[in-house]
Specification:
Number of helices: 1
Family: Belongs to the EcnA/EcnB lipoprotein family.
Pfam family, one: Entericidin
Mean pLDDT: 84
Organism: Brevundimonas olei
InterPro entries: Entericidin
Largest sheet: none
Number of strands: 0
Distance between the termini: 67 Å
Radius of gyration: 20 Å
Order of helices and strands: H
Protein name: Entericidin A/B family lipoprotein
Length: 45
């Protein structure tokens, strides 16, 4: 039973870390997309 609880805690910690990583990647991609959009708008002018 103790091993199951330890495994559950470790799995929860890894899931939380993965969510933060995916969230960070999403923000980075969003910022890159905005930079490309700004660059293309300036190139039109």
């Amino acid at each position: 039973m103790r091993k199951l609880i330890v495994f559950g805690v470790i799995a929860a910690a890894l899931a939380t870390a993965a969510c933060n990583t995916v969230s960070g990647i999403g923000r980075d991609l969003s910022a890159a997309g905005q930079a490309v959009t700004s660059g293309s708008e300036r190139a039109k002018s």
